[in-house]
Amino acid sequence: MTIPDVRPYGHGAPETAARTTPPSTTPPRTGGGFDPETARRDIPVLHRTVNGHPLVWLDNGATTQKPRQVIEALTAYYSAANSNIHRGAHTMAREATETYEAGRQAVADLLGAGTPDSVVFTRGTTEAINLVAQTWGRANIGPGDEILVPVLEHHSDIVPWQMLAKEKRARLVPVPLLPDGSIDQEAFAHLLSFRTQLVAISHASNVLGTVPPVREMTALAHRYGAKVLVDGAQAVAHFPVDVQELDADFYVFSGHKLFAPTGIGALYGKPEVLAGMPPWQGGGNMIDQVDFTGSTYAPVPHRFEAGTGHISGVAGLLAAINWLTGFDRDSVAAYENGLLAYAEQAMSVLPGLRLLGSAPGKIAVLTFTLAGHDPMEIAHWLDQDGIAVRAGHHCAQPSLRHYGVESAARASLALYNTAEEVDQLVASLRRMQEQQPAQTARQP
Question: What is the pTM for the complete model shown?
């Protein structure tokens, strides 16, 4: 298959660039571009079997598998460099601190941030959003203010704002979607006002794959004086990100969706915005001076990193970023676009299969229903063939309700997936249809 003529995401390319050639039933070519086998060789778990079949991991939207470089980084830290950071004068404390701060620099470089001091380590996207809600949000959101949140958001980018709005007597305003799963830009422009204090947007939807025009939406929000938080959990593994080009006030992501360990993630904030935010949690590491008459706090970013951080997680995140950026990111994005087109075409021949979300330029996420088959039953059937997909509401119930469903199955692709694995998915679904006649769909 000729990889579709699509401009790569990020670094000046349109965020909603559409595929400009029709899907093909020929697998994506690797010659002259990215070869997924170079990534697959580094992922130990991809070489195991499940239920007697080679593992086909199509649950990357939930978590990505880890390269040996990440696993080795964790082993090396605990076997040779385990120490707390920042507060020790001995050799291992210095080495651990250097690794930790090298991880911060790597995140800054990955996101195109101007300084590592604009990067705060968190447990992941959810904690990063809650940190912003409970610090910047509590200090700046008041009665009658509005927070705009598109319908396609993950629950982690809805519930914290609901909680804040209830506490502050503000309003959470949903931004509707168009039939293809893209954000209704006319509605967005209409809903913005000088009451809008924050806009929270996913850089890529975990269910629909939609990649909104974040840069343009941010520019419009800034005209009204609103801040913009971008949820990059599903974006950073798929295409290059430049937070300065986006002009995002906040950008958040989770390491485990970026081939890194669980329990580590990051918050980027514009330096001047972070500097004006009060601490969230109190304790060691985030202080300057402590006295029973009062305490003073450390400068950004340490002000927001109370206690001992996930040091080994940062070591793993550093290794994951180094591994990912060792590939040509534009070639990876082009390969994934071609694989998505191949999968969409291959799945379209299955009778009764409905793909949710067709916005131009979407990431490689295939959320679907199959007439007469419950999504959980689909996932269980596929698992018997060694194929891992996700089923349920995907922590994005408003997105699914936009399509009139409460549950769906989801196959989410990564750089190490192949056309052969797509073929196995389609073949297994076809066998399911042949061996298990469709039943009247049960209401969830």
Answer: 0.92
